[in-house]
Amino acid sequence: MSIIGAEDEDFENDLEPTVDDQCSHFNSIELVKTRPTHLLVFLQHVMLQFDCAPLLCYLHADLFKNYSAKETKKQFLDFYNTFLDKGAILRVPVPSHVSYELDRTRPDLISEEVQKRYVQDIQVMVIPEVIMQLEDFRTKRMMGMTRHESELLEVESHHATERIPTEMKEKAVAETLLDRMADTLLSQPLISPFCVSFSSAIFGAVASYMKHLGVKTKTTDNKKSKGFFRKVGILRYNDGGASASNSSLTGSVVGPPPPQEEVDPRLLELEQDPPNWREQVPSADFQSLSKKEIKRQEVINELFITEHAHVRMLSVLQMVFFRPMEHTEIASQPELATIFLSLDDIFEMHCVFQTLLVKLRQDDYIVKTIGKTLLNRFSGSEGDWFQKLTARFCSHQSYVLDEIKTRQKRDPRFGAFIQEAEGKPQCRRLQLKDIIPTEMQRLTKYPLLLENIAKSTEDPEEREMVQQAADSCRKILNHVNEEVKEKENLRMLKDYQRRLDTSGLKPSNELHQEYKNIDLTLRKMIFEGPVTWKVTKEKSIEVQCLLLSDLLVLLQRQDDKMLLKCQSKNHSGVPEGKQMLSPIIKLSSAFLREVATDPKAFYVIFTWDSGAQIYELVANSAADRKKYVGPAQEGVEGCPWGRGGLRSLQPPLSLAENGSGARNANTGGLCSCR
């Protein structure tokens, strides 16, 4: 076989490109996105070389240009869950102004016009990444370094006929490529729940867009494969896999959920309690164990049993409530996505953990080592994933419970469904409102169980791993508690904002102009609770006190309204001049003093250049007072009082000093909150 030199003429002829050097079909993303075969080849390249989330986000964002208002409302929630949510597998960078608004407002409550604008802003943000990926593909294709060249040539060299037009040919080739992609992404053994979720999410997003171009796939069209994406994790969780219900983009591709008989038989085993470890251990082996080791095995067994029970309860939530509600359309998709937020992912995550625990017991009923399994679950990337999912689910818990209660009252069909479902034996006499909080309850148990295992472990290395896992659990729990607190505070602020009435500020034109359009939800709430506002010796009023990030706000209840009302110290009751007290105090111009004679009371002293005003507030208890005063004394990070905005003077004033100080301060001038 002769060797051809670079100087040979034949060599140059052999190098004549079979590919258009200009890659005309890949000149721009605008052209590629309309050509299904070319788009799939480009997508395959991006999946192998880059993060494909920006490209998929760009494509789905482009669809919004042709959506009606109704379609926009429906599709935006899918888009949010797939690409924008903090726990989304295909999350892309989000502009700061969009991220800020999405943290404050539920996606489905945003107007259609604003939703479209947000999508357009996000599409603009990912365009540079998409252009870079396309340029890389063009360069490497001309070098012969891309795949599926034969399929591209088959389409590009096709001579259109009346029987087989170019569009039909391209769709046929694209369908073949899409089925191959399904085999590649969904049929290979995977090593972690995240891998399965990631692959399923990618294919779901690709198939959804290709369906828009008229390209179908056997994976989603075969009736036997309906619900494939929901089942993939259940069928594989024994091997460490889990599926994406990451978003209804996936669900919209695969159609309705699978019927009950398609559920993996392993789920039925959850109804049976696992055997006690003592019954499985030979008598001689049991007698050889020390008391400390027996205690260790007992705690490990408690971890196994309680995890089994938790997975069973999550399966009830999924199979008795969520799936039937979805199948019968008892509630809309956005409503279900809100009520059962990330439920599929959480269920699969716990299934995987439960399977790993069962495997430990199957290997040896006397569990020798468990530290590595626990550490892998609660730390590193798996721990981060666990934290994200549980924080999302638990932080919406209060809102979900209120929504269910409200829906049961106003929707007889919904109420009848819930009542019937709660009567099923799988619920074991528990109501839906009792089952939803189980994930939060489970989180609180992990640190205690793991710490008790660590205490009873003799081997230093094993004990250290278990303790590290326990510490990681504690951090996850603290993070979730903070998320729950922040979401609950935001819910309350939204309720206060909805009922807010600023007409009581009108006696002060300056005050009314500054705060007539105040938005409480733009601020972080540190604490809130009822207090008594002692305006004068003779006059006290009950108010709701909100300690916000930069303000102290005193609200009066008036029917369903929360009134911002200036108060007067004079006998006429008309708030004016030096005798007027504002219901809004800027923390940057205030400090506090405890009342020495009353463990529940404290002064907030508002100062400005020409004087000061004193507010005497009495909390319901000494503990509640500490929640206002405590941040200033302890310097709690994130609290404006702790940062020095509101200063605490120690020790507290004496009775005489309190009285004298109050009289002098009251003559200081008008409280203008400036």
TrEMBL record:
Entry GO terms, CC: cytoplasm; membrane
SUPFAM superfamilies per the UniProt record, alphabetical: DBL homology domain (DH-domain), PH domain-like, Regulator of G-protein signaling, RGS
InterPro entries (UniProt xref): DBL_dom_sf (IPR035899), DH_dom (IPR000219), GDS_CDC24_CS (IPR001331), PH-like_dom_sf (IPR011993), PH_16 (IPR041020), RGS-like_dom (IPR015212), RGS_sf (IPR036305), RGS_subdomain_2 (IPR044926)
Keywords: Cytoplasm, GTPase activation, Guanine-nucleotide releasing factor, Membrane, Phosphoprotein
Domain DH: 295-483
A GO term for molecular function: G protein-coupled receptor binding
Main location: cytoplasm
Gene3D superfamilies from the UniProt entry: Dbl homology (DH) domain, Pleckstrin-homology domain (PH domain)/Phosphotyrosine-binding domain (PTB), Regulator of G-protein Signalling 4, domain 2
Localization in the cell: Cytoplasm; Membrane
Single GO biological process annotation from the record: G protein-coupled receptor signaling pathway
Listed SMART domains: RhoGEF
PANTHER family: RHO GUANINE NUCLEOTIDE EXCHANGE FACTOR 1, RHO GUANINE NUCLEOTIDE EXCHANGE FACTOR 2, ISOFORM D
Protein name: Rho guanine nucleotide exchange factor (GEF) 1
Source organism of this protein record: Scleropages formosus (Asian bonytongue)
Upper lineage: Eukaryota, Metazoa, Chordata, Craniata, Vertebrata
